[in-house]
Amino acid sequence: xxxxxxxxxxxxxxxxxxxxxxxxxxxxxxxxxxxxxxxxxxxxxxxxxxxxxxxxxxxxxxxxxxxxxxxxxxxxxxxxxxxxxxxxxxxxxxxxxxxxxxxxxxxxxxxxxxxxxxxxxxxxxxxxxxxxxxxxxxxxxxxxxxxxxxxxxxxxxxxxxxxxxxxxxxxxxxxxxxxxxxxxxxxxxxxxxxx
Length: 195
Description:
It contains 4 helices and 5 strands; from the N terminus they run ααβαβαβββ. It has helices at residues 3-11, 15-46, 88-105, 145-148, and strands at 75-81, 138-143, 149-150, 153-154, 186-192.
Protein backbone atom coordinates (compact mmCIF):
# COMPACT_ATOMS: atom_id res chain seq x y z
CA UNK A 1 0.00 0.00 0.00
CA UNK A 2 1.47 3.36 -0.99
CA UNK A 3 1.46 6.44 1.22
CA UNK A 4 -1.19 7.94 -1.12
CA UNK A 5 -3.53 5.00 -0.41
CA UNK A 6 -3.02 5.43 3.35
CA UNK A 7 -3.73 9.15 3.07
CA UNK A 8 -6.93 8.51 1.09
CA UNK A 9 -8.18 6.03 3.71
CA UNK A 10 -7.52 8.51 6.53
CA UNK A 11 -8.95 11.59 4.84
CA UNK A 12 -12.12 10.07 3.40
CA UNK A 13 -14.59 8.63 5.93
CA UNK A 14 -16.09 5.25 5.27
CA UNK A 15 -19.69 5.18 4.09
CA UNK A 16 -20.81 3.57 7.37
CA UNK A 17 -19.07 6.31 9.41
CA UNK A 18 -20.63 8.96 7.24
CA UNK A 19 -24.11 7.46 7.73
CA UNK A 20 -23.58 7.17 11.51
CA UNK A 21 -22.44 10.79 11.71
CA UNK A 22 -25.41 11.86 9.59
CA UNK A 23 -27.82 9.93 11.83
CA UNK A 24 -26.27 11.45 14.96
CA UNK A 25 -26.51 14.92 13.45
CA UNK A 26 -30.13 14.31 12.44
CA UNK A 27 -30.99 13.07 15.93
CA UNK A 28 -29.36 16.06 17.59
CA UNK A 29 -31.09 18.45 15.19
CA UNK A 30 -34.39 16.70 15.88
CA UNK A 31 -33.85 16.96 19.63
CA UNK A 32 -32.89 20.60 19.25
CA UNK A 33 -35.96 21.31 17.15
CA UNK A 34 -38.19 19.52 19.65
CA UNK A 35 -36.66 21.47 22.54
CA UNK A 36 -36.97 24.69 20.56
CA UNK A 37 -40.57 23.83 19.70
CA UNK A 38 -41.38 23.21 23.36
CA UNK A 39 -39.75 26.50 24.34
CA UNK A 40 -41.67 28.33 21.62
CA UNK A 41 -44.93 26.71 22.73
CA UNK A 42 -44.27 27.75 26.33
CA UNK A 43 -43.41 31.27 25.17
CA UNK A 44 -46.55 31.42 23.00
CA UNK A 45 -48.66 30.32 25.97
CA UNK A 46 -47.05 33.10 28.04
CA UNK A 47 -47.81 35.59 25.25
CA UNK A 48 -51.36 34.47 24.54
CA UNK A 49 -52.96 37.12 22.35
CA UNK A 50 -56.35 38.40 23.50
CA UNK A 51 -59.19 38.34 20.96
CA UNK A 52 -58.66 42.08 20.42
CA UNK A 53 -54.93 42.77 19.82
CA UNK A 54 -55.49 46.39 20.87
CA UNK A 55 -55.98 45.07 24.42
CA UNK A 56 -52.74 43.05 24.45
CA UNK A 57 -50.41 44.03 27.29
CA UNK A 58 -46.76 43.03 27.15
CA UNK A 59 -44.90 43.15 30.48
CA UNK A 60 -42.29 45.88 30.51
CA UNK A 61 -40.14 44.40 33.27
CA UNK A 62 -38.97 40.80 33.26
CA UNK A 63 -36.14 38.49 32.28
CA UNK A 64 -35.87 40.27 28.91
CA UNK A 65 -36.59 43.80 27.86
CA UNK A 66 -40.00 44.11 26.17
CA UNK A 67 -39.74 43.28 22.48
CA UNK A 68 -36.93 40.73 22.79
CA UNK A 69 -39.02 37.53 22.87
CA UNK A 70 -42.38 39.12 22.10
CA UNK A 71 -44.34 37.82 19.11
CA UNK A 72 -43.99 40.26 16.22
CA UNK A 73 -46.40 43.18 16.25
CA UNK A 74 -47.90 44.77 13.12
CA UNK A 75 -46.06 48.10 13.28
CA UNK A 76 -42.51 49.17 14.14
CA UNK A 77 -40.88 52.55 14.53
CA UNK A 78 -37.15 52.92 15.05
CA UNK A 79 -34.97 55.90 15.87
CA UNK A 80 -31.29 56.41 16.56
CA UNK A 81 -29.97 59.33 18.57
CA UNK A 82 -26.55 60.91 18.91
CA UNK A 83 -25.81 62.18 22.41
CA UNK A 84 -24.49 65.74 22.62
CA UNK A 85 -24.02 65.94 26.37
CA UNK A 86 -20.71 65.30 28.07
CA UNK A 87 -22.42 64.57 31.39
CA UNK A 88 -22.87 60.97 32.51
CA UNK A 89 -25.64 62.18 34.88
CA UNK A 90 -27.56 63.63 31.91
CA UNK A 91 -27.44 60.25 30.17
CA UNK A 92 -28.57 58.44 33.32
CA UNK A 93 -31.47 60.87 33.80
CA UNK A 94 -32.51 60.58 30.15
CA UNK A 95 -32.52 56.77 30.26
CA UNK A 96 -34.38 56.80 33.57
CA UNK A 97 -37.11 59.09 32.14
CA UNK A 98 -37.36 57.07 28.94
CA UNK A 99 -37.66 53.84 30.95
CA UNK A 100 -40.38 55.24 33.21
CA UNK A 101 -42.30 56.62 30.21
CA UNK A 102 -42.00 53.40 28.20
CA UNK A 103 -43.15 51.32 31.19
CA UNK A 104 -46.22 53.54 31.60
CA UNK A 105 -47.08 53.59 27.88
CA UNK A 106 -46.82 49.79 27.62
CA UNK A 107 -49.64 49.65 30.18
CA UNK A 108 -51.79 52.17 28.19
CA UNK A 109 -50.97 55.05 30.54
CA UNK A 110 -49.67 58.48 29.49
CA UNK A 111 -45.89 58.79 29.15
CA UNK A 112 -45.90 61.06 32.21
CA UNK A 113 -48.48 62.55 34.51
CA UNK A 114 -50.52 65.28 32.82
CA UNK A 115 -51.06 67.09 36.13
CA UNK A 116 -49.29 70.29 37.14
CA UNK A 117 -48.93 71.67 33.63
CA UNK A 118 -49.74 75.15 32.51
CA UNK A 119 -48.73 77.85 30.11
CA UNK A 120 -45.19 77.96 31.52
CA UNK A 121 -44.87 74.16 31.67
CA UNK A 122 -46.18 72.31 28.63
CA UNK A 123 -47.52 68.82 29.17
CA UNK A 124 -44.84 66.11 28.90
CA UNK A 125 -47.39 64.01 27.01
CA UNK A 126 -49.71 65.43 24.35
CA UNK A 127 -52.52 63.13 25.44
CA UNK A 128 -53.12 62.07 21.83
CA UNK A 129 -53.11 58.41 22.85
CA UNK A 130 -55.43 58.75 25.86
CA UNK A 131 -58.14 56.12 25.76
CA UNK A 132 -56.30 53.86 23.34
CA UNK A 133 -55.48 50.33 24.42
CA UNK A 134 -51.91 49.18 25.03
CA UNK A 135 -51.94 47.35 21.65
CA UNK A 136 -49.03 45.13 22.71
CA UNK A 137 -46.67 48.11 22.83
CA UNK A 138 -43.05 47.26 23.47
CA UNK A 139 -40.24 49.78 23.63
CA UNK A 140 -36.74 48.37 23.29
CA UNK A 141 -33.62 50.41 23.99
CA UNK A 142 -30.23 49.69 22.49
CA UNK A 143 -26.78 51.18 22.88
CA UNK A 144 -24.40 52.01 20.06
CA UNK A 145 -20.61 52.10 20.24
CA UNK A 146 -20.65 55.88 20.76
CA UNK A 147 -22.24 55.47 24.18
CA UNK A 148 -19.07 53.72 25.34
CA UNK A 149 -16.29 55.48 23.46
CA UNK A 150 -15.91 58.43 21.12
CA UNK A 151 -12.75 59.08 19.14
CA UNK A 152 -11.08 56.26 21.10
CA UNK A 153 -11.80 57.97 24.44
CA UNK A 154 -13.94 56.69 27.29
CA UNK A 155 -17.03 58.83 26.92
CA UNK A 156 -19.10 58.35 30.10
CA UNK A 157 -16.91 55.99 32.11
CA UNK A 158 -18.52 53.04 30.30
CA UNK A 159 -15.73 51.89 27.96
CA UNK A 160 -14.97 48.87 30.17
CA UNK A 161 -18.64 47.78 29.89
CA UNK A 162 -18.71 47.74 26.08
CA UNK A 163 -19.54 44.23 24.85
CA UNK A 164 -16.79 42.75 22.69
CA UNK A 165 -19.37 41.87 20.03
CA UNK A 166 -20.46 45.51 19.66
CA UNK A 167 -18.62 46.44 16.47
CA UNK A 168 -19.53 48.35 13.32
CA UNK A 169 -21.14 46.19 10.67
CA UNK A 170 -19.14 45.70 7.50
CA UNK A 171 -20.34 47.44 4.36
CA UNK A 172 -22.54 45.27 2.16
CA UNK A 173 -22.68 45.29 -1.64
CA UNK A 174 -25.11 47.95 -2.77
CA UNK A 175 -24.91 49.98 0.46
CA UNK A 176 -25.40 53.66 -0.12
CA UNK A 177 -24.98 54.76 3.47
CA UNK A 178 -24.79 58.41 4.41
CA UNK A 179 -22.39 58.86 7.32
CA UNK A 180 -24.52 61.57 8.96
CA UNK A 181 -27.54 59.25 8.93
CA UNK A 182 -25.95 56.07 10.26
CA UNK A 183 -24.80 54.89 13.64
CA UNK A 184 -26.13 56.45 16.80
CA UNK A 185 -25.42 56.29 20.49
CA UNK A 186 -28.92 55.29 21.56
CA UNK A 187 -31.46 53.23 19.62
CA UNK A 188 -35.19 53.03 20.33
CA UNK A 189 -37.55 50.51 18.75
CA UNK A 190 -41.27 50.88 19.45
CA UNK A 191 -43.58 48.11 18.23
CA UNK A 192 -47.35 47.76 18.59
CA UNK A 193 -50.44 46.33 16.90
CA UNK A 194 -51.58 49.85 15.99
CA UNK A 195 -49.68 52.69 14.37
